[in-house]
Amino acid sequence: MSKTKRFLKLTAFAAAVMMAAGMSLTVCPAYADDEEEYTYGVSGDFEYMKYSDHIAICGCNTEEKNVTIPSTIEGLPVTRIHDNTGSFAAVSSLTLPDTLTEIGPFAFCWCSDLKSVTLPDSLQLIDFQAFEQCSSLSEVVFPDHPVQTGARTFDETPWLNAQRQKDPLVIVNGSVIDGRTCKGDVVIPSDVKYVSGGAFDGNNDITSLVVPSGVKNILDCACSNCENLTSVELNGAEFLDYGVFSGCNKLKDIKISGNLKTIHPQAFADNTGTATITFYGNEEKWNQVDKDPDDEYLKRAKMVFDPNGAPADPDDPQGPDDPTVSLLGDVNEDTAVDVEDVVLLARFLTEDETAVVSRTGALNADVNRSGKPDADDASQILRFISKLIREF
Predict the structure, then answer these.
(1) Rounded to an integer, what distance in angstroms lies between the CA atom of residue 250 and that of residue 207?
(2) In the chain, what are the domains?
């Protein structure tokens, strides 16, 4: 975690304590989290920070229960509710603008009368504890795309409790929001793109975790202090953030993507065990990963390099450096991945005798590297084709 991020989290915590104690709180902080220059302003009931191309709301001075946040101020779009806003606690009805991309930490926490919220299609991020302790919040309407969430975003809300009753692995539109009540071996579905920071934090009932290749960043404290976690597979990870596996002393088996670029110096903090780390790449590539050369956990680990064992990325089915695989997804071996491959694979899986698939074709079809072609492979190939069509 960067010094800036640590400062933000400490400031957020301090603000939360002050609010709980009934102490006065300066709403607009004297810093910008993105280090851009801004000017402070007031428009009606709202305090804001004006940047060169957008507005961040940092205060709301009204006793009204029904609050509508404007989409523009001074001709610029309102794209963020700033960290520690802390002035929406009395709100019971909240309308968010369709220009909003981020909701900052603690932005709407302790809104005890807020019963429902509709998140705009433009939203990309809800940061940590943004709706924490909204004790009446029972309905959250998400946009039809993954929204990245921070740690404990909806803690102590009826909405989160209800989602956990349906499934302890709380997933909304390709984003894992919470997994702290999961038990045993957890396999995150292949269509997931985000796993929130702190998603499994402190879960002592989880024993293993498989994260699909679509999840590129394993965010801060995702599995910290999971005391009985013994194995993880991070099939697409490029970045391991602060405290991801801190305090996981039984973590002995780690399989990790050959696309890995960075390991935060505190990713494995306070781990006393010794692990076998299987890296889906060669030793030269491992040495290029940005990591702390003095990390004791990594120094103790037994390294296994397996460039040919990597699971395929469904968004980039080119496959590992395996000479028996010519092109992942190319079931009919015509050097292209298209609808004909999906049709042939579907016929092959239904045991259509006229559907002939060679050994190489079958290897190409096994994009999820399960050991044999299956329906999930067909689904992943179709997703890849759909993505190409959208980009075209």
Answers:
(1) 9
(2) 1-166 (3.80.10.10), 194-311 (3.80.10.10), 339-391 (no CATH)
